[in-house]
Amino acid sequence: MPAEAAEPVVILPELWQRPEMLAALRNRNIGHVFRLIRQYTGFSQTRIGVAVNLSQGKVSEIMKGTAQVTSFEVFERVAEGLRMPDPARMALGLAPTRPTAPRVIDAVPHPASVIPSRDGTPTSALLSVESTVAVGQPPNADPWDVDVLTLAWIVGRLDSHVDRRTMLILAAGMTAEAAATIADPWERLSRALTGPQTLDEDTIERLEARTIGFHRLEYVLPARAIYQGLTTHINELSNLLQSGPPDRFRRRLAATAGEAATLASWIAWDLKQPGQSASFERVSALAAKESGHPIIQACTYAYRSYAAEGHAAYEAIRQAQQFLPAQGDDATRAWLLSREAEELAALGDRRAVDLLHQAEEAYGRARPHRERAWTRFLDPGRMAAFQLSTYVRLGDDRQVIEAGQAALSAVAQDADHKKVAVIYADIAQAQLQIGDVAEGIAYARRALDAAQRGESTWGLQHLTTVEKALSTQQDQAARDLLGDIVSTRRSLGTSPA
Fold first, then answer.
1. What is the tens place of the pLDDT at every residue in 112-134?
2. 292 — alpha (psi -120 to 50), left (phi > 0) or beta?
3. Phi, psi of 83, rounded to the nearest 5 degrees
4. Rounded to 5, what percent of the chain is helix, strand, coil?
């Protein structure tokens, strides 16, 4: 969503006093009101929509005259959102505002600062979450039916953790018109796709940012919401590589294509498309070789480990570690060490504890937001989740309590349903292990709810041990939960997300 779309709409008093505006208000012709605002202020349909809590599509219909505003509630919302002065409100047939009446939007707390940008671009040129109003959507609308390519590009340029709430705010305004207002990057990309002569540093950076954005979207959005956009992105990268780019750009294009392809392989597996998954995995291997970045293969094997169990999962992680450089890339190193600890713990190997310590040391040196497209997910909350999962699998009740508290603290600040599902599932397993069935069921229910919200079969995978424990319980709550888990597993499948 463009920066200005989230900012308050300010209209000069003179516009409300124009004869044609007063006539439109008296006739309750909101379409004409919107057209006049756009004519004299240049505000986009998206910005108007955010201000009055209507979707961009609905604003477009009203402006075209194919939809009419007849509801008193909508008239009030329009007047409030556009900050109509009292004479304009009365011309519309509404009561004047009382000076002492607080504005609804002022009563809602908002962040004191905006999200910093990754590349030094002033944040106002990207977006602001201050004074954001949720955009209305039609009933049964898919909240992730957005321009994912543009959303990924914006998210990839942000320099902080992007939680689900922020993503919803962005997606709410990511309509076709919103994408069109960010015309410059797409015009540049279109020109680059027609021939190598227009390929430049700026285009490469935009494509790299978009790849980063897709990796960030993956741990917040359901797989189905980003797969098509991601494959389009990879096709564009492929076209550029085939166009014979200058050598100084070719390796960077190959690297970002590999980073995108390994994510596509992971998502295709989640969507039950093993053939597509294998194809993207081959692309990532070729890109790793072409770009001179073998670590891309480390990410591929790490993802593969989630789709396996037991010794097969452990071997996939060991294979991934062979692609690590001798020094550097500490975020990927910390991830792989944590995964190795998890899988060793599942095999009953106490060496997992030493690996956790090594992972913490690597994480202390890491810069996850600067290293690789896939390392943005790694934060203290995820590291706490790895510790919890490892100690639960080892059956170390004392360490589980400490790790569980750290993980729960991370959950309290995070709306990432995929991570929340995993943490709650591990806590549920720990509670059942120590014999607290009621708490185990309560946390398992929370884990299931988070997995359903995020459409995360990865979260369901962590409930496997809980399912086994619930199968021995006789009370109705356990049986009901077990039935719900089985039903959700059937609808989402069993591959990781």
1. 333 333 344 332 333 332 222 23
2. left
3. 55, 50
4. 70, 0, 30
